[in-house]
Amino acid sequence: MFATNEQRLVEILLQCQPGQPRTRGTWEVDHQGTPFILPSIGGITTNIQVGDDAFGWEGDHIEPGVSCTADTHKPYEHPNVTVQVLTCVGNTATIVSGEAKGATGVVIGHHGGSEHIIIDFPSEAKEKMTYSDTIMIRSRGQGLKLTDFPVVTLFNLDPSLLKKMAIRVGPDGVLEVPVTTVVPAYCMGSGIGSAHVAKGDYDIVTSDEDAVREFGIDKIRFGDFVALLDHDNRFGRAYRKGAITIGIVVHSDCREAGHGPGVTTVMTCATPGIRPVIDPKANIADLLGIGTMLKGQRLS
Q: CA distances (Å), 155 to each of 40, 87, 126, 201, 284, in order?
């Protein structure tokens, strides 16, 4: 395994609760000009887990699992901003109140705009949850470094998940990272230009059907690790030829123009220091045995 600074990371407990589903309360319009009223961001989504398809749902920006916030009334203020920035993909979350008390889940990423942390819990736990339940996240990961690969920057990644990603060093010294899908730069949309990637996500645009088919974007699942070509995320989300970013898919395809499956950044390099390697099982559900791998599991 690669040398890291894992032993120097700070571990902090963060508190949140399920965030109520949100709607604008009126018609929205898709990229073809068709109005729609459908489920969207937020909520305890009982029939969708990490590992499920990110396409084909009668919804827009659907967040799988449980969407969580520290304060739904102040999404861009303390303490919600702290929860957003310090929570990392792969962190453990535990329900500490209510009928589902004691159930554990895994953070799969954050969604910008809604300012939600998205956590995968077993189906049985979700059926017992309420929107007043308290969830504690064991936060660790921001500041994680690959000490022998200084050109590669990590964000939002729990070191325990990093160890399971089957990353290897190629014969030319380049890091080979398993992903399910490679996405060209011109397919990235909403979220480009953000000042940093320690919270939120950005979207793979799916309004061009030919590009979607060509790159297999419509095969993406919630929790897939994907490679974003020519995108440098070190100091925000920006185009840079030769750069590469690795992220995880956190919400569904979208009907609005400029949107599509959302990606939370976990790894980026301004030079070709990362090489994506296609692996259909490069999904957090497969790596950790959660989500679709646990459908039907009962709480003990």
A: 26, 10, 28, 12, 16
Among 91, 106, 140, the domain boundary falls at 140
Confidence (pLDDT) at 299: 44
pLDDT at 132: 96
Same domain for 130 and 76: yes
CA atoms of 32 and 6, how far apart (whole Å): 47
pLDDT-based confidence at 298, cuts 50/70/90?
very low
**Domain span at 28:** 9-140
* 187 assigned to some structural domain: yes
If you average pLDDT over residues 77-99, what whole number do you get? Answer: 98
Question: Are residues 244 and 129 part of one domain?
Answer: no
Whether 146 maps to a domain, the answer reads no
User: Would you tell me how many other CB atoms lie within 10 Å of the CB of residue 97?
Assistant: 14
- Whose tokens are 């895994």? That residue is 106
d(C-alpha 130, C-alpha 298), whole Å? 18
Q: Is 1 contained in some domain?
A: no
Do 163 and 283 belong together in one domain? Answer: yes
pTM over cut 0.85: yes
Query: What region does 134 belong to: left with phi over 0, alpha with psi -120 to 50, or beta?
Result: beta
Q: What is the pLDDT of residues 43-53, one digit of tens each?
A: 999 999 999 99
Distance between CA 54 and CA 61 in Å, rounded? 10
Q: How many Cβ atoms are within 10 Å of 74's Cβ, its own excluded?
A: 13
Which residue matches tokens 């939370």? 264
202 pLDDT more than 60: yes
Average confidence (pLDDT) over 141-156: 97
Q: Give the model's confidence band at 128: pLDDT under 50 very low, under 70 low, under 90 confident, else very high.
A: very high
- Reported in sequence order, the residue ranges of the chain that DSSP labels E, i.e. its strands, are 12-18, 28-29, 35-36, 44-45, 65-69, 92-95, 104-111, 116-120, 135-139, 152-154, 168-169, 175-179, 181-183, 202-203, 225-232, 238-251, 262-269, 274-278
